[in-house]
Amino acid sequence: MRIYPNSLKVSRFAVQVSKKTAKHAVDRNRIKRLVRESISHLLPTIKPGFDCIMIAKTNFADQQESSIEKSVRNLLAERRLISNYPN
């Protein structure tokens, strides 16, 4: 995950999945869709003012939505981007 500060009142996100991670476009698009959905659920708790590029390193295509959301939440918490995350 790459994080860059911005001067906006919102945080923006991009999701990148390479062909090395998932060979088929269907799988890459599913991974992006699931990660974006996880981010949208967490958006009220995410601190504003950042541009984030999330780079998928593992194939999430076979995982459940709840485990992907948990992975995204943990990644954002490690980077201290979630404002009211219980530690």
How would you briefly describe this protein structure?
The chain has 87 residues and is of the alpha+beta class. It is built from 2 helices and 3 strands, in the order ββαβα. It has one domain: 2-Layer Sandwich (Ribosomal Protein S5, domain 2), CATH 3.30.230.10.
Summarize the main sheet: 3 strands, mixed
Query: CATH class, anyone?
Result: Alpha Beta
Whole-number total of structural domains: 1
Distance between the first and last residues' Cα: 20 Å
- Using only CA atoms, what is the Rg? 13 Å
- Secondary structure tally, helices: 2
Describe the overall structure.
By secondary structure, this protein is α+β, with helices and mostly antiparallel strands. The protein has one domain: Ribosomal Protein S5, domain 2. The protein contains two helices and three strands. Helix 1 links the parallel strand 2 and strand 3. Helix 1 crosses helix 2. The longest helix is centred in the middle third of the chain and has 18 residues.
Label this structure with key terms:
87 residues, alpha+beta, Ribosomal Protein S5, domain 2, 3-stranded mixed beta sheet, 3 strands, 37% helix
